[in-house]
Design brief:
Blueprint: H1 3-25, H2 34-55, H3 60-65, H4 71-95, H5 112-135, E1 142-145, E2 148-151, H6 156-159, H7 165-175, H8 183-196, H9 201-218, H10 225-243, H11 247-252, H12 268-276, H13 283-293, H14 309-312, H15 346-380, H16 385-404, H17 408-430, E3 446-451, E4 463-468
Antiparallel strand pairs: 1-2, 3-4
Length: 471
Amino acid sequence: MDPLIELALASQVLVFFMVAAVYLAARQASLFHPLTWYLAFHGIVFVLRPLLVFVLNFDAQFTYMEFYPSPEISVLALAASSTGLVVITGVCLACGRARLQFPKAPLSAFSREEIRGLLLTTLLFLPAVAFSIFTTRNGIEGERIGGVYVNTNSVGYLNDAQFALMPLLCAWLVVTRFHWLNVGPSLLYVGYRTWFGWSRWTILLFLVLAVAVYCWHQRIRWMPLWSVFVAVPCLLLFNLLGHNRDALKSYLQGIPVHSVDFSPGMTTEGRIKKRFDGPDFANFDSLAFIVAMVPARTETYTYGTQYLQLFTEPVPRKLWKGKPVGAPISLFNLNSYGNFTGLTNSLCGDGWMSGGWIGLVVTMVLVGMLLGWAHGWFWKHVRNKIGVLFYLTGLAMLPQWYRDGSISIAKFMLWNWLPLIVWVTVNWALGRRLVHSYTLLLPRGAAIPVIHLPGTRPNGRTKQVVSATAN
């Protein structure tokens, strides 16, 4: 191994543990902090992955991209990822400092109106979910245009409607206080996602969301031990589906299931490489490609124009025949310099494409500010049940955003937040609302006796005295 690479790998590990130590020393660490998930993500893709690349010669993704980085490019990629880690950690801690304390009293139960609202919301989404499952039962037809997959026989919004099941299932977990009967629908959901084979991330994110909701409901800051034992088979399933999307379908048809075909006489190192050297956690490989090509080969940056896709993406392609593929303004295409199809940028790579070191720092500062504000909001409103579900659903989506970068989080959040938005709307429609009738001017210091009227719910004592001061 090149001495420069050895020094860079040692520095990468050292920086990671130093940042983790600062995070823990700040007394802000918990399962509910976005930095917990970023540190886990960074540790896997930018610390563990480079070690596998250079120690066990994991090079399948470089072969796929038709690109092999020089030691200098590898060091640059490591430095960029560490810079992103330091920036997002510092900004997120500064903007999201909060008092990590759950209320001593248990959470109040959901009202009848809220339960009826969730039931009505579930019934409203079931037809769209059923239609989504039906239309995607035989797969989705599409084509790659400039490295972007485009649907040709369906509408992406309807295809993704089935993702609404995840927040709905977790909402019912909370409403029913984690009654054991929820096991049935949860296993049915995971079984279907396994049978479908694609969008494997929905299995892991459902687990993350369910565990986060459970910890909040039980007022504990870290995941319980049982969740670790559940996570292991989920990760194995995730890896299996990565090699064989039709694994469950083949098993049900009596066809032998082989996740990986090993050649006779293959060494242990070769078996490990073939099983685990895939694109799932290869963001270091992608980042090395990006820092090598931008701006040396592209001769320009994107300057953040990829985020303009937020305005064009919501329009279905069936309604806009000339809709741009990807961002409406494309200053370069990474596929012009290698095979980048199907690979992900990561937040660090997305920031680098926007403007090199400056773009990287600006991107991580903005993301850190947003996540820090959200973390502070969570602890201030930890008793706001539906509001917390919004936060925890977004928290479960973060690993996907860290991995993909750009606007992908907006696509994933659409069907994951939409059921909660509808639930809030239905609750408002079904609930009691105050209607302004008239204005009464009172003399300064006047006292008004407030009487509990029959048919209304008293708040505390049935009779209160309220002091009002005239303007």
